[in-house]
Amino acid sequence: MKRNIFSITAVALMLAACATTDVQQLSKTSFKVSTRGAPACGSSGTRNVAFRTAAVEVIRRGHDLFVIQGDTTGYDGWSGMNEQGMVVQLVDPRSPDAKNALSARETLGADWQTAVQDGAPITCTT
User: How far is Cα 68 from Cα 78, in angstroms, rounded to an integer?
Assistant: First the structure.
């Protein structure tokens, strides 16, 4: 019985904190998001965490519009960790590029204020 409780707790903890993200400023209008997701996240869950983090960071920088200029995906076969990197370019709403840009607020949904307050997601189930 104790073994079952331990196993369930271990799985719950793994799923609850399955991703870590770093953000590096590249220029005044661009930054890189680097996310590592646990095997339970898979590549798609890790990508989702990176993308949502990008949207949060865009808003924190006082913008809404952005484009992904670079995207890298990796998988560490030894540890099972998934990796996702994105280079994000902020877009001025008056720019000709604005018509093709994504909205950070729309990306995060109706409760975007809470997402920005919470910061980078740590689970791949958001």
Answer: 29
Domain boundaries of the chain, sorted by first residue: 2-118
Q: Which of 87, 115, 90 is nearest to 103 (CA)?
A: 90
12-59 pLDDT, tens digit per residue, is 444 444 899 999 999 999 999 999 999 999 999 999 999 999 999 999
| CA 37/CA 81 separation, integer angstroms | 6
Residue 93 has φ and ψ, to the nearest 5°, of -65, -20
Q: Which CATH architecture has domain 2-118?
A: 2-Layer Sandwich (3.30)
Rounded to two decimals, the pTM is 0.84
CA distances from 118 to 39, 52, 112 (A): 23, 11, 10
User: CA 91, CA 116: separation in Å to the nearest integer?
Assistant: 18
Alpha helices in 17-111 (DSSP H): 42-60, 104-108
